[in-house]
Automatic annotation (TrEMBL):
Full protein name: DNA polymerase III subunit delta
GO molecular function terms attached to this record: DNA-directed DNA polymerase activity
Nucleotidyltransferase is among the record's keywords: yes
Membrane-spanning intervals of the chain: none
Top-rank taxon, per record: Bacteria
Matching Pfam families: DNA_pol3_delta2
GO biological process, one term: DNA-templated DNA replication
Entry keyword annotation includes Glycoprotein: no
Organism, scientific name: Cryobacterium luteum
Record key words, sorted: Nucleotidyltransferase, Transferase
EC number: 2.7.7.7
NCBIfam families: PRK07940.1
């Protein structure tokens, strides 16, 4: 089935879901409240009512979830399967519900709405499917609402949760789902996917997959956006150029600006398209003023977009810290005489200079500082302060 063609590096997981999707609904084990457990290729691939897909960021959790959803919702004939897959891609299939968030957390109201939809019988397909992206973004009381739905699932409703790890969910939820763990795909696998799916030049595809450390989404962005590649390179060169505390403070401000530029580039076009689409659906022509009775809907959309902008900025700062971690990991590799293991090969000359400006212990301290900065920012510490404290540890004075 074509729904599996745009996945890469997860052959074992695909085999599990493919076999489960081919089971007829009568073999499903709905209602098994204690059916939790991790699935391997050696174990049963029978259908169950709730799945959890875990794996590191960029491993393709959501892509696999929606491929599985498309397989479950496909009627069986090639033409019908293609139509169902297109509806799933567009998130318009009548038997598909998607629970996600563009904010920092998934709202209680969104979970309640998804739970209510999960009670409906399938309208056109074998199953009703609910995909929960970023299931780790639910606070405990919100997770408890989802738990009740998993404890007493309607027949022919399938939940597919995605999270970085099982530890990110409540133990009670973990016990009600069947877990499939993904691995980090290889650089070659991701590069091949970019060439096949996006038509990217093989050289750019390999470069982007390597710099993204096999993160599929980030690799695609780097491969298809030269400005994103330029911002990433500026980030690393800025860090390598820190020679004093004042330079560290200035670098923190510059990195925040780069993260802001990247976030705006991601959200600006999407915001405009969403607004235009809403205005058309409301019957408001381009250039026409919005009638007073419709302004509340526009305001609600703008509020959602502001929340998305906040999350996008936080995600952008985190991406910068991940890139910096790869940079100092490379410095460590050079210090250990393992130049062939470097990720940022294009900066090899600068990495060699940086490797002579400090001892390996100092490099480890900088990598630890990056990890601490990520934790602080997740804990709502002001990003500027967290970055400044981290970058002070990155001061290098060439000998």
């Amino acid at each position: 089935m074509a729904v599996w063609d745009n996945l890469t590096g997860q052959a074992d997981a695909i085999a599990i879901f493919r076999a489960a999707a081919e089971r007829v609904p009568s073999s499903a084990t709905h209602g098994a409240a204690d059916a939790g457990g991790t699935v391997t290729t050696a174990e049963s691939t029978s259908m169950t009512h709730a799945w959890l897909i875990t794996g590191p960021p960029g491993s393709g959790r959501s892509n696999l979830a929606f491929a599985f959803a498309a397989a479950l919702l496909s009627p069986g004939t090639p033409a019908e399967d293609l139509a169902a897959a297109r509806q799933v891609d567009a998130r318009t299939h009548p038997d598909l519900s998607v629970l996600t968030t563009e904010g920092v957390i998934i709202k209680m109201e969104s979970v309640k709405e998804a739970v209510a939809r999960s009670q409906y019988s399938p309208s056109v397909g074998r199953y009703r499917v609910v995909v929960v992206e970023d299931a780790d973004r639910m606070v405990e009381r919100t997770s408890n609402v989802l738990l009740k739905a998993l404890e007493e699932p309607p027949e022919r409703t399938v939940w597919i949760l995605c999270a970085p790890s099982e530890a990110d969910l409540l133990p009670t939820i973990r016990s009600r789902v069947r877990t499939v763990r993904l691995r980090v795909p290889s650089v070659a696998d991701v590069a091949d996917l970019l060439v096949r799916r996006n038509g990217v030049d093989p050289v750019i595809a390999e470069l982007s997959a390597r710099l993204a450390q096999s993160h599929i989404g980030m690799a695609r962005r780097l491969a298809t956006n030269a400005d994103a590649r330029a911002r990433r390179e500026e980030t690393l060169r800025t860090a390598l150029g820190i020679r004093s505390v004042s330079a560290a403070v200035n670098a923190a401000a510059r990195l925040l600006a780069i993260a802001g530029d990247d976030a705006k580039a991601i959200t600006l076009e999407l915001d405009a398209a969403e607004r235009d689409g809403m205005l058309r659906s409301l019957g408001v022509e381009a250039g026409q003023s919005v009638p007073p009775g419709l302004r509340s809907q526009i305001k609600a959309l703008e509020d959602d977009q502001k929340r998305r902008a906040v999350r996008s900025l936080r995600d952008g700062i985190d991406r910068i810290l991940v890139d910096l971690a790869s940079l100092y990991r490379d410095v460590m590799m050079v210090q250990l005489g393992r130049d062939q293991a470097v990720i940022n090969l294009e900066l090899l000359a600068e990495l060699r200079t940086a490797s002579t400006a400090s001892a390996p212990a100092a490099t480890v301290a900088t990598m630890d500082a990056i990890a601490v900065a990520r934790q602080r920012i997740q804990g709502n510490v002001a990003p500027a302060l967290a970055l400044e404290a981290m970058l002070v540890s990155a001061i290098r004075r060439p000998k």
